């Protein structure tokens, strides 16, 4: 387009799509609330009454599975199947969808179908997975709303394993699709794909120094670099990165070896071409590509000439069969470094028997060398991994069982407890990583319990804070944490600094006998005690709104609690209670947004909860920061009234605190934190603060606070989903 034509065009070019048009681009220090605007209902094409859990239960499960089985060997000319079987491709698609999960914040994973959108659909490690999803499209079109993309992607990988001979552990439906890219996941600070891994390590030789919450070693990878650390082969160094990466995905050493071996028992790597001939990734491709990426219009790019990772070859002799061939080749032969046709480092066997070579994907009369990546060599070079590999080699049945369970864990880890599982193949066995909680009693005298709670004479703020601390651990990202189970009374939660152990012990000692006498769970009584405190504060404000309560929570046992797995849920900050564990690079208000998003809160819900919690006197350790009222313990909208009143001025006192000073007298009235004042400084949050400060919204403030509180208390009530 010429300069003259551009001047004449009435459309503001780039205004709709350019990053330069965003507020954050203009003002980088502005608090970005996009994380709380995720998955607005307006983005969904479904009607307001659509319920996926209800819809998927009407699915013909057997028919869908049979259609996927048929697809496995229905090779298409536009993207032919290796050896006539799409199993390896479908497994890689499912694996990479699930493998983005990390335990630090529970984000990533396959439970939302996010692989359809940027950046995941265009990651270098996901090259050509767009073809796998397009192969599945006729099946998705046929079954429509009865199966989500999220479920279909994982089901395809699981069925692929079954079609090649593995007895899988099971499969559960229940993943709901999102409808636009996720902005709440931090994938790293790098500005280029596959930047050296040094950029996310304090010391690349110390795998544990990788930046949290990241799990992959480089931007655009799912796990580790298959050629070695920063592309330099060294199996022992790679082993360290593999161990750390898989641990950050909740996998132990045995599961790690099983997944590595099981993933590489089938399929192949693709590197028989020139990477420079590949076009842009899907998000950068021209419109005529219609969502495809990495297209090669220069040379042949399918079949044996497919280009993906750059490594070329199959790992086993029979890449479309589930067998023990991976360990057989790994232990039978010596391996040496060679370069693939695309120039990538790979390990190949020395003096391999002709019959142990896999055949070409298109011509069975041609046999080629198998290959191993640097991560594969780590399975026999690292002493601990080698012990496990030897056991798997000598006991194929055990290997198959461990892999089947690890695959199920990998693909279901972010779905939450078993109550979220749907379908006839959901395993009956309860697994500890599912954070099991027994059903609680729903038939007890709630009113009597409420009276007993009041008789304890405990400060109402302590009751509310205890209920909040119990529920705030919930993460919508992987559906872990929350008040159900009362794990706040168990290790490690009972000793977390943010839970104020001394206060927690005092409150639990008072509530435990009440729960026992009423035949109620302590989990229910903790939440009910918080509700009682709020109802008393509402009453003191001259209103009589009841806080909803639904019994039925259970109390988890130590036996059913993997204490170590809960460490990542230990809060480092809680803006709702004006608490910061230590000084961080990230600002307190940004940590507040992260917590609010994990709790599933909107910006308005976060705002009303902050204002209410301040008035309820629930700050950590009794701090008076943000308690802008003469009547603490009364659920009024005073926080917003005084925050927005221009008779005050605000002056810094320390890095995180500010004096609230009367302009006329110069007298300090209150102390505020950064979290408090951001609700007056940020234009969006101030609009909510002003709304709740209005005279005609006093009652709405109370009702909205109660609704947001109840939402947090019931985030983990998956038993109520149906």
Q: End-to-end distance, in Å?
A: 56 Å
Radius of gyration: 28 Å
Q: How helical, in percent, are the residues?
A: 25-40%
Portion of residues in beta strands equals under 5%
The largest sheet has its strands arranged as: 7-8-9
The tally of strands reads 9
Described by the principal axes of the CA atoms, the overall outline is elongated
Which regions have little confidence, pLDDT < 50, spanning 5+ residues? Answer: 1-7, 12-17
Please name the defining characteristics of this protein.
722 residues, single chain, 9 strands, mainly alpha, 3-stranded antiparallel beta sheet
Q: How would you explain this protein's 3D organization?
A:
The chain has 722 residues and is mostly helical. 36% of the residues lie in helices and 5% in strands. The chain is built from 23 helices and 9 strands. Strands 7-8-9 form a 3-stranded antiparallel sheet. It has a two-stranded antiparallel sheet with strand order 1-2. It has a two-stranded antiparallel ribbon with strand order 3-4. Helix 9 packs across helix 12 and helix 12 crosses helix 13. The longest helix is centred in the C-terminal third of the chain and has 19 residues.
